[in-house]
């Protein structure tokens, strides 16, 4: 009795065998050949699994996570084609309190940087019941707002070591969670080779309670909920 090959049974399961060959294979099954029947059952299971895989649509978050994983494993460039050092344009911690306001709870900090044609908007939010903070940002090309900046690797570094990393979404947005420490720097690598370098600054409070100039040190206690900031009052 002639047995058919695994390749032929795979085609039979996929319904691509026609004519005399299909008739011969069906007759062979009807004759009671157990090994060939088992082979056909195996390929039919494989075919059903493959059909289910084709019908499966992964979630957007799963796709973004997978892209981020592979993007962050790319071989890093030792020297970017061009590095743009961002300059601070706005810091919400440097805005004066309204007259008569005795105290306020420091919870969220808004920063805006410029690096060449790009603007980097950063929002630092403390997390409840945690000493971690969320660093939420967006990168935009000020001269070409339609430029897509998705899948650009974003890393938060300290002394050359990566503390947190992610990639931007289709709107150039990103989110990181970490313990903020001194000497942190945010870096965004754009696809055309430019690297944006953003120092993360934290203003400190002087002994008399006034806001001092921004420094490159970050004190987590000034970002945590419940921390009060003293301000001068009239009179």
- Beta percentage is 25-35%
N- to C-terminal distance: 108 Å
What's the Cα radius of gyration? 30 Å
Which class do the helix and strand fractions yield? alpha+beta
Tally of individual helices: 4
Please state the overall shape, judged from the principal axes of the Cα atoms. Answer: elongated
- List how many beta strands DSSP finds: 14
Overall pLDDT level: 77
Bin the helical content. Answer: 10-25%
- Biggest sheet: strands, sense, closure? 5 strands, mixed
Low-confidence regions: 203-235
Strand order of the largest sheet: 1-11-10-7-8
Order of helices and strands: HHHHEEEEEEEEEEEEEE
Structure, described:
There is one protein chain. With 235 residues, the protein is of the alpha+beta class. Helix content is 23%, strand content 34%. The protein is built from four helices and 14 strands. The strands form four sheets. Strands 1-11-10-7-8 form a five-stranded mixed beta sheet. α1 crosses α3. The longest helix has 22 residues. It starts with 5 loop residues before the first helix and ends in a 5-residue tail after the last strand.
